[in-house]
Please model this.
Amino acid sequence: MQESAAELSPTWEMAQDVRYPTHRDYRHRNGVLNVLLNGEKTMPQRLTGQRVLITQADDYMGPATQALFAEEGAFIIADTRDLTAPGSCEALVADAGHVDIFIANLASPNFSGIPAHELTIEDWQTTFDTMVHPLHRLTRAILPQMMERGRGKIIVYGSATALKGLKTLAAYSAARAAQVGYVQSVGVEVAPHNIQVNLIAQNYVENPVYYPPELRAKESFQKSLQRQVPLGRLATAREDAQFALFLASDESDFFVGQAIPFTGGWVQR
Model:
């Protein structure tokens, strides 16, 4: 079963393409992503031996999370399949086998700029089909094994647009808000089983899906960044992944069903 999980992931070595300092070397050996610094293998740290399932592993926060979690000793199951297809979520969990940590990395087009009265049912449905329904189907399939072991972590890469109203972003904001409600409810439900479910409500984080290089290069975007974000900059993807690492570690065991802003001050609660 472990081998099939690795074979199913066409981006199993995606971390090789992440642009971190050149002294890092990612080696894939016997189904495990090993990290070498200056030619010497690093000592496993907070996630030693933990099996981590990451969805949409080739975009959004996938590459940065793969790289950082591998450095911390995790066994990465990086999946890129279409999770809107019938049965795909259940098949993924069955193929993955043992999962200690589930990273729900789910992103869709945001359909920004479309007024609610012009928003098509198809566009509305796309956000829920991509970010909400797979979250439940995957969580429903993973929870029984975590409950049996009395231990587990589920981290959702969400959005702070669920916490702050923005014009012409109805479909995306609604789907992201649904994720928040789901995490809050399931989080308190499974906490007695020593399973922590939490969400990173992020915005203004570098990633090619929502902040492509051509957008970041525009003077108008930089001026907007200075106005909107008290820190005056985007967070790096690695900074975001480090927050997810904290939530995936034993150090976060007292965090339950929370949607935590990660926005440089754009949203504070």
Notes: The chain has one domain: 2-262. DSSP finds nine helices and nine strands in the chain. The domain at 2-262 is CATH 3.40.50.720 (Rossmann fold).
